[in-house]
Amino acid sequence: MTNDKFNFDEIVDRHGTHSVKWDKCESHDIIPMWVADMDFKAAPCIIDALEERLEHGIFGYANVPEEFYNSIINWFQRRHNWTINRDWIEYTTGVVPAFDAILKAVTKPGENVVVLTPVYNCFFTCIESNKCNTVEVPLTYNDNYSYTINFKALEQALSDDNTHTLLFCNPHNPAGRVWTKNELLEVNKLCIKHGVTVISDEIHCEMMMPGYHYTPFASISAEAQNNCITCGSPSKSFNIAGLQAAFITCSNPTQKASINQALIDNQVYSINPFGLEAFMAAYNHGESWILQFNEYLAGNFNLMCDMMNKELPQFHITPIEGTYLAWIDVTPTGMTSAQVTQKILDDGKVLVNDGAMYGKAGDGFIRINLATPRSLVKEATQRIINSMKQ
């Protein structure tokens, strides 16, 4: 780690850069706070690695070096006390392509795949594309606006003879939970009991609020490791999603061979040379940057909460433990989440996500991306307050 201080307050104009997040908006006066994409420059170590690669001037097909595997192994051992065997790792272009390939490898059309909702919308599309049935198990929404797992309902879903897979999110998007080791142990116990394989999406694992610690699902026991397929990437944490590089870990040789074939079948078995360099630079040299980002994120969340609690108390904000995504209950307004989302866009010029896209349990909520300079968080929050007060 270094002693460098990073400037997260810098506003970088992303209009006209073919940005999914910003160029979706026809009007330049809209603040987009929807898709999970940061508005910060990548860590200097990543930019330096990319500039060095650019200077070479030739960008042919890339071979994945041992350094790629070592960067994963060393990062997760050092940061999260998870020992990963080199032979467990497979590479791919992204976590969503990984879900799709893994489901192709471990499920059959017509089988059930269980998800804990509200949950990342791409879970549904990947399950559907593999012609499987989505079984939604709603998380328990508590009086303090946080979420816990309804283990009774989960076991009921897992016990179905047609269910062999749980698509899990750790930390949870959009509910912001960083599951505890005890919660993961209980999930694992139920999955082992009913012969259900866990596919764990852990792409948000580096974004932590103060006092919270991510536990890799596969790290909780040898039993869990043998029954879990993990999907990860530095892409969300280090704002390099467009460079498309991710990894899968699977300790079951038969399953891993099937996954590898599915990656080939889906044509997502290679990584571009810039993605490789950014990936390795993030895991080898990016720890100081991510630690400072987490401090900044906490400040953004606290600012939004202070403003909304004072001016818009009817919005109930779920405490963020992990991710950079605020999850807000708007049902007390008497409006649907679609109506609130549209009103915020029309009257406040802020684009947020309608919670209904995250499953039935997400209806009545909105999701707000806080990975943007604080001045924009403040401006967007004030616009939301003004629009809802009209």
CATH class placement of the largest domain: Alpha Beta
Give me the CATH architecture of the largest domain, please: 3-Layer(aba) Sandwich
**Largest beta-sheet details:** 7 strands, mixed
Query: Helical region count?
Result: 13
Arrangement of strands in the largest sheet: 2-10-9-8-7-3-4
Kindly state the percentage of residues in helix.
Answer: 40-55%
The structural domain count equals: 2
User: At the fourth CATH level, what is the homologous superfamily of the largest domain?
Assistant: Type I PLP-dependent aspartate aminotransferase-like (Major domain)
Mean model confidence by pLDDT: 97
What best-fitting shape do the alpha-carbon axes yield? globular
Structural class: alpha/beta
Write the H/E string, N to C: EHHEHEHEEEHEHEHEHEHHHEEHEEEH
Q: Tell me the number of strands.
A: 15
CATH structural fold name of the largest domain? Aspartate Aminotransferase, domain 2
Give the low-pLDDT segments: none
Beta-strand content: 15-25%
How many angstroms separate the termini? 48 Å
Output the radius of gyration: 21 Å
